[in-house]
C-alpha cells in the first residue's frame, strides 16, 4: 500500500504542472463545472473503454466508468490508469484556484465498484499543488496491508500524503478512524472534507491560529486536525478534484470493469459562524463556543481545546465569538422540518444564563 501511495503523491505534482493554466480569480461559491484531465498521470491501458459522465452542474453527479482495458502500453511503468476531474469556476475551461484564506467544505456520496477488488482500485478527492504536492481522501476496494479473505470486504477509507494527516479505518495506527468498519465495494459511503483557514504562517514566524482539515465519513469525524505545514494550510493556486485510479494486471484486462459514481456532489464556502460546517449557523455552533468558554491560547499557559471555538481569532473564547454566532444566527440552509430553532434575542438570554454557570479557566 505504501508503494502505491508514494507513486501517487509524487505523480500528482505532475498533474498540477500539466493543468497549470491560470484561471481568473474566483471564490469557491463561483464553482460551476469540472475540468477533466483523463489518463493522467497514468495510462497503462490507453485503449480502455472510458466514459466520463459529467452532470455536476445540473444534478451533482459525476461518474467514471471504465471497461475492457485491452492491451497494456509496453512502455508503461505500472498497471495503473488514472482519471481526474478538477473543480472549475469558469464552466470547465480551467481548474479553479483555491486560496489559503477561504474556508470550504466538499461532500459527496461515493460508490466504488469493480469486477476484481484486488489489486487495489481507489477513488475520492485530492488536492494538487506544485508547491506542496498532493493530498488524498480516498475509498479503496482493498487495503493491500493484509491478505484478502474471499467474501470478506476489506476496503479502506484513508487520508494521506502532502500535509494531509494519515488516517485509516482498517489499519491500526493507534486510532482506527471512521468507525473502524471496512468499506464494502459497490455500496454508498458519504464523504465530507472541511478546510478551515488559519491566521499567520510558520514560514514567517507569525503563526496565530493553525489552519485545519476535518474528514467525515458517514457522519463520523476525524476531529479537527491542525495542519503543521509552513504555509499554514493550502497554498494559493491549489487545485481540488475527484478521481478514479485502477490497478489492472494484464491477466484481468479483458474482463475488468471499474465504476466510481460520485452523487450529491456539493462544494461551498464556509459561512461566518458556521463552526461545525453543516451549512447552517445554529445551536450546535453556539455550543462549540460555550463548551470552550473563557479558554485562552497563551503559550505555555493554556490552549483552547477546540480551535473552531475562536472564530474571532483573538486567542480567547469569549463575547466576541458569541456575538459572531448570534450576528449570523439562522444563516444558511435550515435544519429539517420539526427542529426547534431559538430566535437570537431569546437565545442570548439563554446563553448568558449558561455562561454564568461556567467556570472561568485561565
Question: Can you tell me about this structure?
Answer:
It is a single chain. The protein is α+β, with helices and mostly antiparallel strands and 362 residues long. It has two domains: 2-269, Jelly Rolls, CATH 2.60.120; 283-357, no CATH class. The chain has helices at residues 2-18, 56-59, 283-291, 319-327, 344-357; strands at residues 33-43, 49-55, 61-67, 80-88, 104-114, 121-129, 133-140, 157-160, 167-168, 188-196, 212-217, 220-221, 225-226, 239-247, 257-269. The strands form two sheets. Strands 2, 3, 5, 10, 11, 12, 13 and 15 form an eight-stranded antiparallel sheet that branches. Strand 6 (121-129) and strand 7 form a beta hairpin.
Can you lay out the helices and strands and say which pair or pack?
Elements: H1 2-18, E1 33-43, E2 49-55, H2 56-59, E3 61-67, E4 80-88, E5 104-114, E6 121-129, E7 133-140, E8 157-160, E9 167-168, E10 188-196, E11 212-217, E12 220-221, E13 225-226, E14 239-247, E15 257-269, H3 283-291, H4 319-327, H5 344-357
Antiparallel strand pairs: 1-4, 2-3, 3-15, 4-14, 5-10, 5-15, 6-7, 6-14, 7-8, 8-9, 10-11, 11-12, 11-13
